[in-house]
Amino acid sequence: MRKHIQPHIMCGIEDVAKYVLIPGDPRRVETIASFLDESHKVADYRGFVTYTGRSDDIEISVCSTGIGCPSAAIAVEELARIGAETFIRVGTTGALQRHVHMGDIVIAAAAVRADGASRNYAPLEFPAVADFNVAAALLQAAKKSKRKIHFGLVLSSDAFYGNAENLERWSKLGVLSVEMESSVIFTIAGLKKLKAGSILVADGNPLLGVGKGEFEPGERTGELDDRVQDAIKEETRIAIKAIKILENNSKSVALAKPE
Length: 259
Prior knowledge:
Layout: E1 19-22, H1 27-33, E2 38-45, E3 48-55, E4 58-63, H2 69-81, E5 86-95, E6 105-114, E7 128-129, H3 132-141, E8 149-157, H4 164-172, E9 177-179, H5 182-191, E10 195-202, H6 226-256
Parallel strand pairs: 1-4, 1-5, 5-10, 6-8, 8-9
Antiparallel strand pairs: 2-3, 3-4, 5-9, 6-7, 6-10
């Protein structure tokens, strides 16, 4: 059997599982993989770091996407070509609502497509929606979490240092938070009959000037804040539990089918 090594992630057939957790930060991959029962590094190339392991005998991979939709699109495209079917983004986000606090967890129902990459796949009228079963599994897995959980719309933007007025507009429309990858992940998944969801930790609020920004040596702000770091661990547990729920549900459906 041909291996079909992908040019950017440097992984091939049988290197990755059908379930893949996709953080943005390459350094977070090893941390997420440590929550699996066992794992090993598959590849590390151009910022795409990939581990594959198991949890309760379910094979799970973790692959970084880098920052932004263009990089995320490359990761999802190449992972899908070698067998990945279900993607869960495990990341951070900037709150756009006052009731979403640092360390809270946001599960995305859908993403506003304020990015450029997804427009190469479909016109803006095509919705970037999380897979219903993945979103439901994430919500079910988060039920017993001590973290405050929010479910709703997120904004995916190409510009981290964007226009505050633009963020205000989306805030007034009820969008929970802003991040940089979910829209293209959902768009590609929708077009290619894949499954995708997104679970995010609020690391600040750009409208309030709280969170990720300049800091002095030794300061722990934004993503480095202890509340955020603890919440990232919690969202990782939730994402892995959601995969177990999805796997159990798929087995139940398979058993229920008449022979």
